[in-house]
Amino acid sequence: MSVQLSVDGRRVDVNVDPRTTLLDLLRERLDVIAPKKGCDHGQCGSCTVLLDGRRHLTCLALAVAQDGAEIVTAEGLAGGPDGEHDLHAMQRAFLEHDGYQCGYCTPGQICSAVGMLAELADGHPSHVSPDLTAAPKATDEEIRERMSGNLCRCGAYVGILAAIRQSAQASA
């Protein structure tokens, strides 16, 4: 089947088997290696990208179901005028706070964090939001709950939390 996508700002037309996951299409056919295949069951978050502006697990998504979608990976978050590749504020914060160790989960963590802050800005409550009618705040408890689908085997959670907290404060 034919699928058209925008991947990190680049338009892609590709024929895929209807059983191909979005993760396999990105990594194996399009050489987009930022999303990682961790568990391949939607449990670790290593494959997280922004799909039409929302965080999404690519290992659970069929490529054919994403026809016309805009996909942004951790690599695509970096950018700037005239082809410069300045780091995204979240990427800089991860570096500043050592929000990585082996780095395997980092692209998914960063995409999830960017998507999570957008959810906060849009006023979407979480399981731990004390008031479902008030705009949620980027408290440590909120950040931990919203990032709970992204696992780090190395245990860099202290740095990840600090990086997200810094980005949240900068965007507030």
From TrEMBL:
GO molecular function (one): oxidoreductase activity, acting on the aldehyde or oxo group of donors
Classification via SUPFAM superfamilies: 2Fe-2S ferredoxin-like, CO dehydrogenase ISP C-domain like
Pathway listed: Alkaloid degradation; nicotine degradation
Domain 2Fe-2S ferredoxin-type: 1-77
InterPro entries in alphabetical order: 2Fe-2S-bd, 2Fe-2S-bd_dom_sf, 2Fe-2S_ferredoxin-like_sf, 2Fe-2S_ferredoxin-type, 2Fe2S_fd_BS, Aldehyde_Oxdr_Iron-Sulfur, Beta-grasp_dom_sf
Keyword check for Oxidoreductase: yes
Keywords of this entry: 2Fe-2S, Iron, Iron-sulfur, Metal-binding, Oxidoreductase
Assigned GO CC terms: periplasmic space
Pfam family, one: Fer2_2
Protein's name according to its UniProt entry: (2Fe-2S)-binding protein
Organism: Nocardioides mangrovicus
